[in-house]
Amino acid sequence: MTNEEFRAHAHELVDWMADYLEGVAAYPVKSQVQPGEILARLPALPPEQGEPFDALMTDFKEIILPGITHWQHPSFFAYFPGNSSPPSVLAEMLTATLGAQCMSWVTSPAAAELEERVMQWLRGMIGLPDSWEGVIQDSASTATLCSLLTAREVRSGRGVNARGFDGSERYTVYCSTEAHSSIEKGVGIAGIGRGNLRTVGVDETFAMVPAALERAIVEDKSSGRTPLAVVAALGTTGSTAIDPLEAIAEITSRHGLWLHVDAAFAGTALLLPEHRSLLNGIERADTFVVNPHKWMFTNFDCSAYFVRDTGALIRTFEILPEYLKTAEREPVHNYRDWGIQLGRRFRALKLWFVIRSFGVEGLRERIRRHCAMARELALRISAEPDFEVMAPVPFNTICFRYHPSEPLAEPPSQPRAQRPPPRRAEGPGDTGRLNALNAALLERLNATGRLFLTHTKLNGRMALRLVIGQTAVEQNRRTARALPPLKGLPQEIPAPSIV
Amino acid sequence: MTNEEFRAHAHELVDWMADYLEGVAAYPVKSQVQPGEILARLPALPPEQGEPFDALMTDFKEIILPGITHWQHPSFFAYFPGNSSPPSVLAEMLTATLGAQCMSWVTSPAAAELEERVMQWLRGMIGLPDSWEGVIQDSASTATLCSLLTAREVRSGRGVNARGFDGSERYTVYCSTEAHSSIEKGVGIAGIGRGNLRTVGVDETFAMVPAALERAIVEDKSSGRTPLAVVAALGTTGSTAIDPLEAIAEITSRHGLWLHVDAAFAGTALLLPEHRSLLNGIERADTFVVNPHKWMFTNFDCSAYFVRDTGALIRTFEILPEYLKTAEREPVHNYRDWGIQLGRRFRALKLWFVIRSFGVEGLRERIRRHCAMARELALRISAEPDFEVMAPVPFNTICFRYHPSEPLAEPPSQPRAQRPPPRRAEGPGDTGRLNALNAALLERLNATGRLFLTHTKLNGRMALRLVIGQTAVEQNRRTARALPPLKGLPQEIPAPSIV
User: Fold this and answer.
1) Which member of B59, B342, B343, B416 has the lowest number of beta carbons within 10 Å of its beta carbon?
2) In this predicted model, what pLDDT tens digit does every residue of B245-256 receive, in sequence order?
3) Does B61 contact A at CB distance below 8 Å?
4) Which residues of B touch A144 (CB under 8 A)?
């Protein structure tokens, strides 16, 4: 492909991209293909001779696109969003064109220094201590693994890195029962052993119970274990529950444990001053991760990992073979030593474009609007006699389920405003029945292609999860007008009665 | 930024991108900025209000671009190339626009099934066994770490993952003294201990000596260690030396060790049938990595990791929290279980675009041309009285140094065709002097901005490395005509006399 062909095709592509972003709501959110359908349409052997770009685009549209689940669809409410945004896409176009590596300062000084600057910006924007430093990782899984590895090396005096485990370490790690699976995965990778991850109980808001954490630490100490690290979640994956950071930091300080804060999704809400108090205690934490690629309109991958002690991070990962030695050692940042991978894309550019294009206030407005929409929806769900909200809604994630107040054989028929009598206590049989009912409902909803929800389990009860955080999500004003006025609804989202 | 603004800006950007790729040769290859220069031009605080795109582009051009080292420059001969290409950039534009996740099949079925198919294509293109399966990782560092972790889990019966090291493992890992730093880093991360990485001696071609490997294994066994894994390099980072795979596989089979093949850079040469014999013995290896993002014209990140036993890989990494459970378990591929990260970009698209756009034969032609250019340059260097080639040139990487045959005080003055008398044996003092001289030469060359070389050390001797593998590299025919005809040069690149 010549440069002139590239120019022509790229212009065609831009129109396709703009049309796509404009019309994405017309696609089924969740791809409706069956397993193997796409594979069967892709030839078993690659072409020997080059093909024209038109052939690629035709196949892209006809074969690939039907198999895409549209993460940028305004009605993508599944998982956590993996947001893109126009300025972020523009930056990715430049990043792809430059193809510059950001492993050492010298491999692209601007990539390294822009990363340093935007991490300083982000640190201030979300209220982390000024003395911390940041680095962009690919994912929170990697950031959490880096944190656990750094904890391991700090505690072992860099002994594990140097000599391997000798069996005397007997480390234990702590998180809540609601914490993300990447912690268990990371504890395994780091050689600590998944079985040495203690999952601490949660309260009725699904937040870690500090007293239970301390009990577990004390028990482990008394049985000859070495409690190593705690991972606190600001926004769990299931219901965005908020572990009490200050109380946890008090415990980790007292017992000499490492503290990692996983704010991968909900950390973006720290842009709002009204949420800033969630960070109380952060000065006693060691590391923190938030993913702008989730809720901050920045293309994946862009996971912002902040550390209190940069030296400890670098000492965990640095390695200096001859072919990577450069004249510039200090004070430049050679980010290859700040994590696992050597090769690194120029990822700071898109975050720079996003922050400058939206402006910090523009980001805040959107985040606030998402939280307001979620709150309104949670109120409306809780006012429905046949639905219940299953967990608090501190940000923009609503966990709810269908729980018909009438026997299941009959269709729900009660008028909206009339609350049903309190339900009898839910037995194990009821839970199984309701879980199956909600699984069926989830499947039916997703099969419509009109929205995409996922689920979680809270105290063994299946909950549908609905996350309002898409770049393009808007309240449908026409539908909204057809709904009963919000003032007729309860002002508080009722506490879940079933936890 | 509205969709219409996005459309307009993206069109502007495409023209900038095409102009850039067309004119990249006019930039200094290696950025000439000083440490801190870029940072000082970036404001300390982010803007509260959004800024127009024009302001971003102005700053991109004026502040960022001077700090970019141009990896797509045709005279970028440093490190290994991190190639982009027009079809790959086009694919990245689509990937960024879709912003689709490829962590589970359901999160984008087409992304998962296209990854499956292009990994099958690539497997066949480079001659790996049909029964192996592939997955795209971000980098060879990660792939090698995955391999070491899988070896650890297979050997420990998944005990380390489950319970952590108990001190009885005492694993040792082997690679040559020329192997990549990611192995040492990975051995540390995996908890085996960098000190338990044995670096095996190399022969005069800088390839691992199998007998030395076996001696090290036997010694470790007899001192109560458990030899775990060998990493063989098809193309070391320093000089692209080729470890003898067949002999190594014979040893790992006999002693029951895991065998990982690191062909990150030179694996692309396996596209050429004339290099295919390098893979002899591969059926007894366990894992293999090649980076299309290096020499196969595919944007970073795209590291192709192939494994003989997919089950062993998945059992090392899989984890299934409730919120990731999906109806489709088999036979779909949920690539989140094939590596460390949960979140994964839709990376197969660019490799698909590249293979289809170039065609396999088109890729071969380019790779062949790169190798031919490197061979010609190596011949020309070896014919120069004041330069010497320091290592064999099996692919497209030339290690050489300036070694004036006259005393250093005088400028090199001998006519080109006249070979100098054999040099006297090189003492340690000479080596230090020559290293300093070549370091100065390297710095002076790179400061011109006209090309970018890096260096390595071979037997303690500093060598300049020149890798001819850029997407846009061409032989300058005008310059070539001014050179003495190739037939006047030696037909064989003289064996390095100084190893």
Assistant:
1) B416
2) 999 999 999 999
3) no
4) none
